[in-house]
Design goal:
There is one protein chain. This protein is an alpha+beta fold. Helix content is about 45%, strand content about 15%. It has four helices and two strands, in the order H-H-E-E-H-H. A hairpin with a 2-residue loop joins strand 1 and strand 2. Helix 1 packs across helix 2. The longest helix has 11 residues. The protein starts with a helix and ends with a helix.
């Protein structure tokens, strides 16, 4: 089951926030979780919304899939930008 905090982490991963101009959303596509955020990434991975990337310190980077970009609310041009990273 995906929680609200999981979707918040997915949106953060993609650079989606009120402090970022909407046309810039998707400018990044990575997140290195710790603590409770690790379980969040595992739930998102099970749902096919993120994939585990390379190791980083004591965790891994996670990256949104195309399905994750859609679920986060990105437009097609933003999805293309996020998927190029």
């Amino acid at each position: 089951m995906i929680h609200d905090t999981d979707m918040g982490n997915l949106r953060h991963m993609l650079g989606i926030g009120s402090h970022i101009k909407k046309r810039q959303w998707g400018y990044r596509n990575h997140f290195a979780p710790a603590g409770a955020d690790l379980q969040s990434m595992e739930r998102l991975e099970s749902a096919g919304l993120v994939r585990k990337g390379r190791a980083y310190e004591e965790t891994h980077y996670y990256h949104a899939t195309e399905a994750g970009c859609v679920a986060a609310g990105l437009k097609p041009y933003q999805i293309r930008k996020a998927m190029e990273l």
